[in-house]
Amino acid sequence: MDAKNRPGVIRLFFYMLIAASVSGGIAGWIQSSETALWASTLNTPDWAPTGHLPDIISILMLQLIAISLWITQRADRCAMRLLAVVMTIGLIAGLCLQLCFIYLDRDVTTGFLAGLALWLYMLVTMAVVDRCSKPSAILLWLPFVWLTLGLALAFEVMRLNEGANFVGGL
Q: Angle 141-160/53-73 helices, nearest 10 degrees?
């Protein structure tokens, strides 16, 4: 892609606005509906983050993914760029779908399995993005760490609640 056709700063701001709107909208939906009441009845481990901290971190993580998407679109390697862009957009969609699986179904086992699938998808996405743009891949490491923590938390919540049947009563 030549320099004059690369995405500019306005597109970056647009991506960041969309990412903040999506993550803020989902956090608002969870906090303002009966799903927050359902989530408060679940047994959670002592090390689980509480309050609005997970919401704030999730907003920041989607911002990093949006910046990574923008940097990937500006990369020079045309063959891998399209695949990396599509997979990064799929990552954002997967994060939203994982929350829907957890809170719409109100099933911690399905939420854990969706989180595990998303974790594996993010590993593949990070490998593809790394082949296209190293700075973009570096920006995905913090969301990957947050997703890993979320996966461990989902496993513990599943284990402590009705999802214990999935893991054989651990």
A: 140
